[in-house]
Amino acid sequence: MSRANRFMDMYQAMLAALGPSGWWPGETSFEVAVGAVLTQNTSWANVEKAMATLRAHDLLTPAAMLDISEAALAEAIRPAGYYRIKAGRLANLLRFLRAEAEEFGHGEADLHDPALPMLQGRNARELRERLLTVRGIGPETADSILLYALGLPIFVVDAYTARIALRHGLAFEDAGYHELQEIFTDALPEDAALFNEYHALLVRVGHEWCRKKEPRCRDCPLAIFLD
């Protein structure tokens, strides 16, 4: 079996067992970008609580969030954990969005639009490089924003991706983020919808079966691919 065929067969096995994931949760591009920051080092259940507070206070546009203090923002996202640190990271992202709106968009008007027009239609690689200059935005968060908020074909790597790739002999133990990313992008068609669903399925498999401790390999949809 070729490498490309194996990756697609794994995808089809997960999809057949679990069905479409419908990721990423969020009504707008800005909500998804905020969620990508809030989900750092916490569960999605905690992120949903923080997002509910932001939604209740009509804070889910860049303009609205820029209008409040960093301390008020921290209090609003308290359920997400590390709330002061994450408020700082969101503030950094907001400053980035304002600068991008001034350089590539329509200035302040873009900040009232949760679709993030200042980032739409941009070159994925160039935009990724710019996002990575934002303090507190690492590769996984940047790629989550690019893929899930903007629909750009960038494969997201996380702990679940790494664990499954290692256990299935697809990567070496010391493989870094970009090496893991290349393993998937080299084997798959460059398609944002495919990258979206593939990553979502890996997370679901990693959460339910391919656990860090006491993995449930026998019942896993990917069991047939273990050597």
* Helix/strand structural class: mainly alpha
Reported for the largest beta sheet, the result is: none
Mean pLDDT: 96
In CATH terms, the superfamily of the largest domain is Hypothetical protein, domain 2
**Termini gap:** 13 Å
Number of discrete domains: 2
Identify low-pLDDT runs.
none
Residue share in β-strands: under 5%
Q: Based on DSSP secondary structure assignment, what is the total number of beta strands?
A: 0
Number of helices: 11
CATH architecture of the largest domain: Orthogonal Bundle
Rounded to an integer in angstroms, the radius of gyration calculated over CA atoms is 18 Å
Instruction: Tell me the quaternary state.
Output: single chain
Q: Globular, elongated, flat, extended or rod-shaped: what is the shape?
A: globular
Provide the CATH topology of the largest domain.
Endonuclease III, domain 1
CATH class of the largest domain: Mainly Alpha
Please give a structural write-up.
The protein has 227 residues and is mainly alpha-helical. The chain folds into 2 domains: 3-22 and 154-225, Orthogonal Bundle (Endonuclease Iii, domain 2), CATH 1.10.1670.10; 29-149, Endonuclease III, domain 1. It has 11 helices and no strands. Helix 2 packs antiparallel against helix 8 and helix 5 packs across helix 6 (83-104). The longest helix is centred in the middle third of the chain and has 22 residues, at 83-104. The chain is globular and about 55 Å long. The mean pLDDT is 96. Residues 38-208 form the HhH-GPD domain. Keywords: 4Fe-4S, Iron, Iron-sulfur, Metal-binding. GO terms for molecular function: 4 iron, 4 sulfur cluster binding; catalytic activity; metal ion binding.
